Amino acid sequence: MSASLKVVKSAGLLLTLQVIQRGLGIISTLILARLLTPEHFGIVALVTIALNFFDVLVQTGNQQYIIQKEQVDEQDLNTAWSLDVAIKSTMALLIIVCSPAIATYFETPELTLALSVCALALPIRALKTPGMMLLARNINYRPVFKLTLWQKGLAFVTVITIALVEPSHWAIIIGNLVSAFILAAGSYRVHSYRPSWTFIRARRQWNFSQWLLMRGVVGFTRSQIDNLFVSKLFGTSQLGGYNLVREVALLPALSAILPMSEPLLAAIAQGKHDTAILAYRTRLSLALMITALVPLTTFIMLYPELIITVLLGKKWEAFAPLLQPFGLFFFTFCLFELISDAVIAQGKVKMLFWFDVISTVAIIVMLYLWGTTSLESMAWLRGWLAVATTGVLLAFLGRQTGFGFLQLAYLCLPVVFASAIAAWSVSQLSLTANSALPEFLIRGSSFVALTASLTIIFAWLFLRRREEWQQVVSLTRSSFI
Asked: Phi, psi (5° rounding) for residue 78?
């Protein structure tokens, strides 16, 4: 099977999976937002921030290392697994020891026990078989599809059951542990590879991973600095609302867009030695990503109050204006990840690290100077800073791969025109429903149907002679055979 066909089939499989996950995520959000308070979500946000920080400190970059390596043997896989287990187990112990101090810093005593329990997910996830990395390397996501269904389904049942019995932040924390256990145990059912303990290739992997590790620390700071400012300046309750609305904006990214981009990354990595193929695959990957992002971003920014009311309930309406700037953050979040991975696939990890350092310092300074007056000013400034940093990194990728900005822009014209026309058309609908849900369903379904139809029509008109269009059509047909 060609690399392109593998990408399409894998992306389609992941899309199906993520539609299910997204559905579970929306249902979970609908239920939890009505059972839990902003304070509960604030505690969960603080736990997540702390755990994510420790998590980036133990990222060995093993999957990126295995995917980009020309030849992979058992020693590479076993070393990657051993490093992951050893480092994350050590970090879990460190988190448990440091949790009282972290709770004191954030003035939230509940963090002590919550952090200690959540820390156990680090070594549990690390125990999964390194055969999962081989599946990603070979762009074979069918086994991952089955495992993730079980993982997300059982974790969802756990979270909702606990929240109904005893509404608190513990529902989400325990659900996270269940998810980690199912991933680790289930990975040995979907792949036959059994690891053994060794550090024989540790030095080689560290030479690759050290820049990813340092970049992870910087990237975490950049992604969470606004949450840290909100926590210290506005309190746990405001952090709960701010972070929950940001999660709603990123829900499509985390549940569908980013997982679908994994096959695109593998395809870019496989073509890095041929300049023409690299430029073509990079351009096509970016165009597909933008085509998926533009309609979602448009709808998010058009109807923030409607989305928040339907998903979270009326008690969260005060935070609804934050969804508009987070629409910008959603668009650039997905695009930035794809661009970063494409840069990493070419081995430019050191350059990417220094870019992250400089951009993170700039973001911190600007947020501190101009974004601390209110939640909305923080969100809008964060959104536009994300646009700026993504644009700069995209310019670097264009210079490295030669994908062609004008060609990329031309490929994106159909979805831009389609989204603009659909947005205007849907805004003309006069709806007098007493409930927000019917309006959301009518406007949402109309927007999706119109955007999809117009995108196909404009793509046929503008792109039918382009190789990218012809390949997408051909691969779409092949994927159903």
From this structure: -65, -40
Structure tokens at 154: 């059982």
pLDDT digits (tens, 9 = 90+) for 223-239: 888 988 998 888 878 98
For 75-95, how does the pLDDT look when each residue is reduced to its tens digit (9 = 90+)?
888 888 898 898 889 888 988
Q: Taking Cα atoms as reference points, which of 57, 116, 126 lies closest to residue 92? A: 116
User: How far is it, in rounded angstroms, from Cα 211 to Cα 56?
Assistant: 12
**416-441 burial by CB neighbour count: b if 16+ within 10 A, else e?**
bbbbeebbeebeeeeeeeeebeebbe
Angstrom distance (rounded) from CA 264 to CA 246: 26
Q: What is the Cα–Cα distance from 280 to 283, expressed in whole angstroms? A: 5
| CB-count burial class (<10 Å; 0-12, 13-18, 19+) for 200 | exposed
pTM of the model: 0.72
- Asked if residues 46 and 231 have their Cβ atoms less than 8 Å apart, the reply is yes
Burial of 155 (0-12, 13-18, 19+ CB in 10 A): buried
| CA-based nearest residue to 111, from 102, 98, 119 | 102
Kindly report, residue by residue over 141-183, the tens digit of the pLDDT.
677 778 888 888 898 899 899 988 888 888 888 988 998 999 9
Q: Is the pLDDT of residue 12 over 70?
A: no
Task: Output the CA–CA distances (angstroms, integers) from residue 367 to 225, 230, 354, 436, in the order listed.
Answer: 9, 11, 20, 34
| DSSP structure class, residue 315 | G
Tell me how far apart the alpha carbons of residues 225 and 317 are, in angstroms, rounded to a whole number: 24
CA 80 – CA 200 distance, rounded (Å): 10
Distance CA 477, CA 334 (A): 27
